[in-house]
Amino acid sequence: MRWVEEVMTPLSVCLSDTNSCLEALQRLNEINSSGCPVVDKAGELLGTVTMKALIERMIHNDRSPADLSFLEAVERNPLVIKPSLRLEEAWACQFDLAVVIEEDGQIVGVLSRADLAVALYQEAEFQVKELEAILNSAHNGIVVINSDGRITSFNNRAVQLFTRVSREAIGRHVLDVVPIGLMETLETGKSEYSQEFRVGQRTYIMNRVPVIQEGQITGAVGIFQDISEVESLSQELAAVKELNSELNSIIQSSADGLCVTDSAGIVRRVNRIFQKVSLGNTQDLVGRGIQEIEEAVYGHPLFDLVLQRKQPVTIIDNKNNRSLLVTGNPVFDEDGKLLRVVINLRDMTFLNQMQQELIDAKRIIENCQELSESRNRLETGGMIGTGPEMIRVFELIRRVAKVDSTVLLFGESGVGKEGIGKLLHTQSNRAEGPFIKLNCGAIPEQLLESELFGYEQGAFTGARREGKIGMFELAHNGTLLLDEIGDFPLNLQPKLLRVLQERELVPIGGAMPRQINVRILAATHKDLEEMIRGGQFREDLYFRLNVVPIFIPPLRQRHEDIIPLLNHFRDEFSKKYGFKRKFSPEVIEAFLEYDWPGNVRELENMVERLMVVSAGDLIQVSQLPISFKSSAGKSARVSVNSLMPLKEAVDEVERQLIDKALEKFGSTYKAAAALGVNQSTVVRRMARFRRTDAESPA
């Protein structure tokens, strides 16, 4: 349905009675109209003028068009219509040019009968095409015949069912195309519904209706549907119902709460868990907006977040002593249009309680481990030693630390003599006092006496005016470690012996002895007895120092400490430099096979070197010095003495390596670390080898 305002020529200015013919003609050209309203000076409508009337006026008059008035060409009392008038109603009026005026009297345009006819024709043509499109888009076949029985309409569905090309049917008699009983409808004029008929192998249902105009039967319409499709749809419907029932069973059996909404957020389906959590039932929830339910259940606009992000959204809500994990998942069709939102709700309260209990249990275990480690660190002063040799050393230190006996520490360079000295000090009754270390071999002989015993003011040229306190006095009520005692000058040894015997000293340049309360520890890597025989060390001083001798074994004699020391230094340097490195199993094996002539100090320096220069996170054996590689290469050789299946050879090598590691380290944990595998792997391999041995014939 269309209106006058859609077809009229809109006007903003009308012709005035003062305009000339030429001006009127120019105005019509400007608005591209065949006519225009004419108003007087007061704006009142006088009539209309058409281009045809203007041209005739100018042809039959000798005056110039610019001077010629057009009022004689004006048609008085023109038809006036409203812009809201329907085109069909306007056509019923007699006019060549109508003026379109609003309710308030304002002239808004003109409508020519020619423009009206074109618009009505276009509308009729559109309606015909629209009707044709409707017929062709119908799922049912439609056949229309006239009073002669000839087909006037045959839609696409009918073409698919009865003939290949529609124009082969249009204009032909219906009985020549398909016998569907329309001729009987023409004769009887009766409507018939749900009439069954067959064409070939298919069965159809037909509705037949006569077309009656002014009481006369002018045609008939037949509408038919393929029953086979209905039956197929019925089967599909049954399958959908079964699937829906199965889906509902799955939803109801879920341990999580499930809620399904449409794209507008209206609840379509919920399961019993969701009902329980929301304290409602199906009747209360289905049909309600999910936003209202969200506010009451978990207090977050989850549905709105899913709409905004167009992807799954998960939230966690904690209230009323309950923890909920809620996830919203959007469901889209093939065109990306939102169809559904599935909300999954899981009550995490019980799981969180179990998790917290697990965390608490782990924390207790960690605290126990930390307490045990702290106790071990206190007992060993942070020194690493798990083998029997070092355990004997630590036990001896615990006993000796309770007394003030002089202790002489023997051991190669780098074994940790200074650390043992500190451990003796921290476990003794002097732990609150100072611990001072003096390297006797690092101070020139001429300065050692003043550093050790101190001097009075003016004792010698260059001495401090106020004098200086020596190391013995600085260590008062504490412990003094004389490292590298084998390098102590022979001429100063008597003075040191007096301090050890009398517990007093006389500073350089002094006259009065000073009492000191110092525990003396000495350390050396030299053979003092050999030095005594060579006249390089006083025997009486040796006996005074060697009250309690403690020998610290070299690292090559305690291989079980290599891996713990390696891990200890690795962790220390990781904290120091801010990065982490791992050692490959081949590197660990090379460390275990190396003799470590520089002992713990060499191991510490090597770990730092490898961690600093390594380009990657995994330290490979290729980064070791040549001495390490050759040692590792010798130990890594596997000899084959006879041919055997490859799988048996691999098993045999694994067996030998595990046996060798267990024999060397004594535990599956240490063996696994040396072999670069988990402890559980070693246990499984051992169990498999035992089963194989048991199944083998004797």
Describe this structure in words.
The protein is an alpha/beta fold. Helix 26 (646-665) crosses helix 28. It is elongated and about 155 Å long. The relative contact order is 0.04.
Low-confidence stretches: none
* Strand segment count: 29
**Rg, nearest Å:** 56 Å
The amount of beta strand, in percent, is 15-25%
Shape: elongated
| Helix amount | 40-55%
Q: Give the number of helices.
A: 28
Largest sheet: 5 strands, antiparallel
What's the oligomerization state? single chain
Strand arrangement, largest sheet? 10-9-13-12-11
Tell me, rounded to a whole number, the average pLDDT: 83
> Structural class of the secondary structure composition?
alpha/beta
Blueprint of the fold:
Elements: H1 4-7, E1 9-10, E2 15-16, H2 21-31, E3 35-39, E4 45-50, H3 51-59, E5 75-76, E6 80-81, H4 87-91, E7 97-101, E8 107-112, H5 113-137, E9 141-146, E10 151-154, H6 156-162, H7 174-177, H8 182-188, E11 192-199, E12 202-213, E13 216-226, H9 227-253, E14 257-262, E15 267-270, H10 272-278, H11 282-285, H12 290-297, H13 302-309, E16 313-319, E17 322-332, E18 338-347, H14 349-380, H15 388-400, E19 407-410, H16 417-426, E20 435-439, H17 445-453, E21 454-455, E22 468-469, H18 471-474, E23 478-483, H19 493-502, E24 504-505, E25 514-515, E26 518-524, H20 528-533, H21 539-545, E27 548-551, H22 562-577, E28 582-583, H23 585-593, H24 599-613, E29 618-619, H25 626-635, H26 646-665, H27 668-675, H28 679-695
Parallel strand pairs: 2-3, 6-7, 19-26, 19-27, 20-23, 23-26, 28-29
Antiparallel strand pairs: 1-8, 3-4, 4-5, 7-8, 9-10, 9-13, 11-12, 12-13, 14-15, 14-18, 16-17, 17-18, 21-22, 24-25
Helix pairs in contact: 2-3, 19-21, 22-24, 23-25, 26-27, 26-28, 27-28
